[in-house]
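Thread title: Can someone regenerate the structure for this chain?

I was given the following input by a collaborator and told the matching structure tokens would be attached. They weren't. Posting the sequence so someone can regenerate them.
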Amino acid sequence: MTAMKVLLTLLAAGFFVPALADDESEFIEHARAVHARVFTLDAHADIEIPGKPSMYVGSDGLSKVSPEKMDQGGLNAVVMALAVGPKPRTAEGYAAAKTIAEEKLLAVKTLVANDSHGIRLVTESDDLLATIADGKKAIILSLQNALIFGAESTAVDYFFDQGVRMFALTHMGHNDFADSSRPLFIAATGAREPASEHDGLSAKGMAAVQRLNALGAVIDISQLSTEAALQVIDSSVAPVVASHSNARALTDVSRNLSDVEIKRLAAGGGVIHVAPFAGYLFDSQDPSIDTALRAIRRDAGIDEDYLYPFELYWEINDPAVKATFLRSARDLLGAISLGTMLDHIDYIVGLVGIDHVGIGTDFNHGSGIAGYIDASESFNVTAGLLQRGYSEAEIQKIWGGNFLRVWQAVEGQRTIH
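Best answer:
Regenerated them for you:
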């Protein structure tokens, strides 16, 4: 990409400083050099199954964190999630959830086995460092939604043995282990689950936290209710992360973390990873946005109340109506760009310091904004941080150093070897 094209991309992403006007090329080359030196890690992306149709992949049909896009953007490592949405809490639902997780696990292992880009699946922090030192790319496996475990916390061991090293207990909807930040809307009854089922973690959830600590697995509090997140932070003997959550003080949706959660996370040594997802970045203080969102939700035939703007689009059966709703909702959120995402990073740094913020994109699940649409544009994040005055050492922490520190601390606390 030419210097001018990079500059135009940065302008489109919503940021520019006067110093660039004197010598754009010099700044861009400096930014490229910094980006090449720092260790870059995306703490959360979803797994796409090759050959399966998806509305979340890029216009080229490829995953937003495909090896090609990682190469283009200079992204060293990505945490790929065996993520499963809500299913009935029955034997059949548990079996379906585990089948999906196994399918995604196989997809990653097949990619690693067949890839010509030199991608490695790593299961230890030392392996990650060695992989990067060798000039290779790394994948770390995570799991999202303990529904995959069925009703048994012992399933943690099975997935750990398969190479999973980070675990999030919920997705949308409560399960037997913990309460979710997004109680499930039950279309058949037209009502939501109660805000809380377990007052945070259940006894199984607490046992899972203890087991994950013993194994040396990173615990991810993204998607948990506030009560569950705080209980995980307080009960874990090692630091924990939020793999893809933003600041609720700037965008008041249930998926983002409150200042209380961020401060407690940081006090325990943890990290919150900010995502380029419009639904977690929009100006929630603008009442006109709320009024307009409610109107288009009613027009689409879904409940007007929402925990984040795009909620319940999956309940819209007519493809044309669904497409219109998603497009209208995104347009209503305004000119969200990489600069908006960096505002959340600035806020968290101001609240708890540089050691407790990272990047977790949620790519392949609706994420992507102007200037940071997929992994190929990872360089723009570094350029934007430099423009805001962050040093190379600080950018190293944000991009991957903070996550690595947590992983090493978690491994240091393990009691099962």
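Residues 17-21 have pLDDT under 50 and may be disordered.
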